[in-house]
Amino acid sequence: xxxxxxxxxxxxxxxxxxxxxxxxxxxxxxxxxxxxxxxxxxxxxxxxxxxxxxxxxxxxxxxxxxxxxxxxxxxxxxxxxxxxxxxxxxxxxxxxxxxxxxxxxxxxxxxxxxxxxxxxxxxxxxxxxxxxxxxxxxxxxxxxxxxxxxxxxxxxxxxxxxxxxxxxxxxxxxxxxxxxxxxxxxxxxxxxxxxxxxxxxxxxxxxxxxxxxxxxxxxxxxxxxxxxxxxxxxxxxxxxxxxxxxxxxxxxxxxxxxxxxxxxxxxxxxxxxxxxxxxxxxxxxxxxxxxxxxxxxxxxxxxxxxxxxxxxxxxxxxxxxxxxxxxxxxxxxxxxxxxxxxxxxxxxxxxxxxxxxxxxxxxxxxxxxxxxxxxxxxxxxxxxxxxxxxxxxxxxxxxxxxxxxxxxxxxxxxxxxxxxxxxxxxxxxxxxxxxxxxxxxxxxxxxxxxxxxxxxxxxxxxxxxxxxxxxxxxxxxxxxxxxxxxxxxxxxxxxxxxxxxxxxxxxxxxxxxxxxxxxxxxxxxx
Amino acid sequence: xxxxxxxxxxxxxxxxxxxxxxxxxxxxxxxxxxxxxxxxxxxxxxxxxxxxxxxxxxxxxxxxxxxxxxxxxxxxxxxxxxxxxxxxxxxxxxxxxxxxxxxxxxxxxxxxxxxxxxxxxxxxxxxxxxxxxxxxxxxxxxxxxxxxxxxxxxxxxxxxxxxxxxxxxxxxxxxxxxxxxxxxxxxxxxxxxxxxxxxxxxxxxxxxxxxxxxxxxxxxxxxxxxxxxxxxxxxxxxxxxxxxxxxxxxxxxxxxxxxxxxxxxxxxxxxxxxxxxxxxxxxxxxxxxxxxxxxxxxxxxxxxxxxxxxxxxxxxx
Lengths: 526, 317
Prior knowledge:
CATH class of the largest domain in chain A: Alpha Beta
Helix content of chain A: 25-40%
Oligomer: heterodimer
Number of domains of chain A: 3
Radius of gyration of chain A: 25 Å
CATH topology of chain B: ABC transporter involved in vitamin B12 uptake, BtuC
Structural class of chain A: alpha/beta
Largest interface: A-B, 43 and 31 residues
CATH class of chain B: Mainly Alpha
């Protein structure tokens, strides 16, 4: 795998040779915002080098520059001691650089082998036709090297699990004599056992001399594999050092730029009030079975469980977006027929979805439109919208929630993840929802924004709002909930008060219905 | 905070299209003698009025993230209904009302196929387009109905004060009403919301299906009115009337800034878009370029307009 390495000439000193990749003073601006400022990244041969930073720190931009997707405004890149000029992203393969993006770039209707060698298919003597036999054989060899011979090269990618798809991505990145592999948040979608398999693969690649740039939010990933670590913040390189596990707090501090004593804000003084929501014997065909629970005002009710436990389905059922086969929903002691989100909203329920881009935001619309989307009834008379009211409400929530924006006319797609999440929260606050269901409220947003969202949740319960928080992050469940329901395979398998909250207890309930593959628990990480 | 900057953004886009229209007008004013005359300009306005109204209907549908390929046959359908009713002795206003309601019914059929049967709008209206056109052809047996009453034809060819075509007045009124409805009403906001992200709209409590049904019915009514204007102007209802109007309607919307993925588009932009097409074919006619070449020119303009928009987006990044 190391063929083609040539050290880079005599005039370059030994120090040069040490580094496989070195950037010098890389800078990049988008319009007036400087997103990268004089970055000197140094990657040694055969090391796993973690690149840390909050959302917006510049990690992705730097990787896009390394892979030729973006051009830097200034600075240079040395690869094997020689300047690297990539004019087209496909050329990175010629240099032995591979990248696995967080969001996979696979074509679901093509086979595993076709995906791995896309754009570089082995040709038959007749030009333009693909040598399918060699294609599949090469893919099989590659997958075997990755210890993934269970994935058949002829299978369609759409039929694979997320972890298997990731292996295909890695195979694709490695398929041309790879010496530098960039991995962007590779564990984000994997279960614990799958993460272990991935780490094994990484260790094996490292042993064979491949250098790996490992981008992650997850501090817990680092111990197992990382040799050195670089921290970026606000487009600047903050530190670069050898990694050891005692550095975690320091690294987090460097990422955040302030001392982060606690991940969660101090719990303000609020008391559980009267019962607002009661669910009795709720069933949804094939998804939810005999769900009973109550929620109270002035209480954060956590809902934990593994992926596929039915938590999102429960939220959608209460919100009228899922067809209920039987069961009752009572609000403030009165039975309600909630058959559509429209009716749920009229009862004061708000639902912040798990995937804010897919079913939360209207990305091409303004903040104003997004914030007012659920409240237009209140801002209009005889079907005509009173724009000044919409404007006033939008301004109010932008200010109250400290949404960073140029104004209420900015398009939602141009905001950062944390601010987008605040916009969706604002939509329901604007609607004066009394029962708020938050589905993975802090997924994919940075530490600072998380903290702000937690503060907002506390403010809301303080005002007597019923907060129901679905989360896959156990520390979040434990840190924020006053009471926790644990779900497993469409049933509620446990209820825990704040004092009894412990990771392993929650996990035990979450895996109550006979574990098939032990240890695969997306909730159990960290 | 710069609250208005996004509005500016949208306005500059319309300005660009408007500038394109102006350049075309200047070009034809210089190259031909007859372009810049009151008679010719009013002629363009009259001829374009039908296309403008159909394009407005299409813009509503496109803004909601759907499409309507059946507007052309809708035009023929309403002409047929109005003509038949009047031939049968029905009073003109009543006949027109009947045609209008038929148009709304066609819209409801489209909405039914889309929201109830769950067929994607492109295929649904591709199918209904063929069905509607087929029905018209069957009823008329392929033969146009001409000799319509003058109580009817004035809407298409009559003139106020002897010079201002009624068709242009109708177009202007419809344009203003529909522009205000799209920008200022709850219905309009919902149309944009659904077009931007249907799931998000649904989960925000917006009655997605109801809005879609209303949208197709409203645009069905507009198309029906356009159909009557056309029949009135040429004083006959032809079974092939309105053929390929959907292409020009979509083109006008897109030139005017609408996006086929939904959530974008404005009535002002669409009107400018429709007039770019109208002026182009009129001017090329005056220059003496034949109809076939006009097709080529219009195609080039569509692609150029959208390409400019793509370039602008890229420059912003």
